Amino acid sequence: MATTLVAGTAARADASAGYARFAGVCAVLAGIGTLVYSISFILLANEAVSSLALLANGLLATAVAVGIYERVKSQEPSFALWALLLSLLGGIGAALHGGYDLAALLHSHSPVDPNLPSAMDPRGLLTFGASGIGLWVFAWLILRSKSLPTPVGYLGYLVAALQIVLYLGRLIVFDAANPVIVVPALLAGFIATPIWYVWLGVSLWRGARA
User: Range of 70's domain?
Assistant: First the structure.
């Protein structure tokens, strides 16, 4: 009986470590994808590449969210589940937004009014709003549980704040050239978010090895 329990525990640990490695790889890819999206959207104005990057990053973010959840769920299970649900909504919303834009571009469909909000993700409600709140809760749980490096939690707070500001900026200010939107977009897209994803990915991979 004891041998069976030990074997079952070892099998669960191996499965958990396997997913942690997978989530770590997805996080690193998401960091690279964030840079690709930022460069293609802000610098190159290439809508096809930016839409594809948004679609891919949304899917990668869902895998990363589950990886974080596995690390922090023992501290505050209900808050961890809430953060997971918000993060999954954010990732799926980003994927839908990118997929919608990509489909419209590939078949030359143009909206009646390009200034109208996307029905899939109005002004980034899911991509930035839901994701930002979910990440804020995850960052809090990372710092409480100490299951990941402390700087990852603090950097998570910064990324979450930038995402929420971006959503509110697009909702209230709307003008993409306004500094209220430009500054957070540059900080999040080119610096904070890529670094956070890569650092998180390396941390998840090392934790799985340990």
Answer: 11-209
